[in-house]
């Protein structure tokens, strides 16, 4: 059985009794068309079930009404909430979102950027990009607008939505020491993480001020997953250095540290406090519930999408939005 013939703009023009140029003006909202003629063309489109070719239209309008969103780990509950904020804001403005997951692999991130450029998306949002500047900067020129989440660049080519990571970690460490913790270990996450570098600076700045009151017993880089936290925390516990607080890069690493403490028979928080960062949903559901720095994840996505839409609407000057995390005290610390 032969498939139904695809309806073309010529068919619509014939059905409506107008020229192809008139149908094009109606579709693209350009040129003078009388209200009555517009009604006739729209009625013909509906009767025939015509769907404009998005690629062909994009060649005329130079817009595809699509944006790309790249995240490093869709399995981390932190990123779906950002994605929802991006998608809801973009869809309200008539845009569709293409999502790419890189599994924390820079080469997959490059592949995703190339694929989105080939799809002619109007702009792209990159969350927690792991690419070095020399690899990332040339790719930015492929897009009309770019927004980075949790990464800043010294360039006018991209806007940024940032967390005040350094200040947040500085506050958290001071709070731990004020509540009696003296021997801290930092499970630092991936060394190429922009947020991780900021959190590292905040911790070191706080401990430098607190010399004589607290020490950094150990600092271990680790993958930003539960297993990464388990391995790093177990390594430190086996060294027997008397750690009384695990300060963790994110909540997933902190959940791994909780697991390692349980396996080693260390009571949390009586013997060792554990803190996270992000406040993913599960942080409040585990036992003991996790003390953490709350990040408004949906808001990050909203901010990113709005900055991208502003750029696409013609704004030239670069902008940054900085979001302050909030301390949420639960049972795992102090």
Describe the 3D structure.
This protein has 12 helices and 12 strands. The protein has 334 residues and is of the alpha/beta class. The strands form 3 sheets. The protein has a 6-stranded parallel β-sheet, with helices on both faces. Helix 5 (78-92) runs parallel beside helix 12 (297-312) and helix 10 (226-238) packs across helix 11. The protein is elongated. The N and C termini lie far apart (71 Å).
Core attributes:
334 residues; alpha/beta; six-stranded parallel beta sheet; four-stranded parallel beta sheet; 12 helices; 12 strands
In short:
The protein contains twelve helices and twelve strands. It has helices at 9-16, 20-28, 35-48, 54-61, 78-92, 106-118, 133-140, 165-178, 194-209, 226-238, 251-264, 297-312; strands at 66-71, 96-101, 123-127, 145-149, 159-163, 183-189, 215-221, 245-248, 273-275, 292-294, 320-323, 326-328. The radius of gyration is 26 Å and the shape is elongated.
According to DSSP, the number of beta strands is 12
**Head-to-tail CA distance between termini:** 71 Å
Helicity range:
40-55%
Strand order of the largest sheet: 2-1-3-4-5-11
Main pleated-sheet profile: 6 strands, parallel
SSE map:
Blueprint: H1 9-16, H2 20-28, H3 35-48, H4 54-61, E1 66-71, H5 78-92, E2 96-101, H6 106-118, E3 123-127, H7 133-140, E4 145-149, E5 159-163, H8 165-178, E6 183-189, H9 194-209, E7 215-221, H10 226-238, E8 245-248, H11 251-264, E9 273-275, E10 292-294, H12 297-312, E11 320-323, E12 326-328
Parallel strand pairs: 1-2, 1-3, 3-4, 4-5, 5-11, 6-7, 6-8, 8-9
Antiparallel strand pairs: 10-12
Helix pairs in contact: 1-2, 1-3, 5-12, 8-9, 10-11
